[in-house]
Amino acid sequence: xxxxxxxxxxATAIFVGILGFVVGxxxxxxxxxxxxxxxxxVWMAMIVTVTMLGAxxxxxxGRFPSALLPFFFLTAAxxxxxxxxxxxxxxxxxxxxxxxxxxNAGRIGGVFFLLLYSAGRITAPFAPSxxxxxxxxxxxxxxxxxxxxxxxxxxxxxxxxxNMFGLMDLASAITLGTLSAPGSLFPRVxxxxxxxxxxxxxxxxxxxxxxxLLHLVIAKKIKTMATVETVGRSSIEAQPLENF
Length: 244
Fold this sequence. Notes:
By secondary structure, the chain is mostly helical. The chain has helices at 3-24, 30-52, 68-84, 86-93, 97-102, 111-118, 126-149, 156-179, 202-224; strands at residues 227-231, 236-240.
């Protein structure tokens, strides 16, 4: 099984896992849940189709990395809905904090950037920065989740520090990825051209926008909440915020 096949399985599993956790712990009715899953499936199918048609290939839009178009569209749609639609904002903020944090464990998949770098299919500075940043974000997401469900309480600033780091990692990855595209500031071959092909096009067009939304929801939640929700084996209980 080659790296692309493993990457396709991994990216799909991460996306499905995020949807499963977030929708599963939401207050949405069954019809709304099915609608969310259907919309996600349609978007993924569109990305697969457009990628296979070569619309994201280097040079398709001149020097502009065409893979950024779905990134901008989905990021604007998700974050815009959270900011401007009260119902969407209410539903997302109702999701337990540990759930919002733990789905970031999928960021450990940043190891694929390092593997692609080792295989000479993607270059620095994008690959090492994005890979290491994602791995650290994912590992600390697991540690924070363990503290949250362990009931000792977590001081809000630690969650805020982690959340800021994770969001800055995504911003850095998008910036370096764009600057490393063929014909850009870092014109070394192969640059980030691999991100224009399956399965790696899933990253900018699906996973990054979703993770940006999750970081915004977490930021809003820890700013307004008076307690940290903890996930028990059979129920969700509220615990007061305490120092470590």
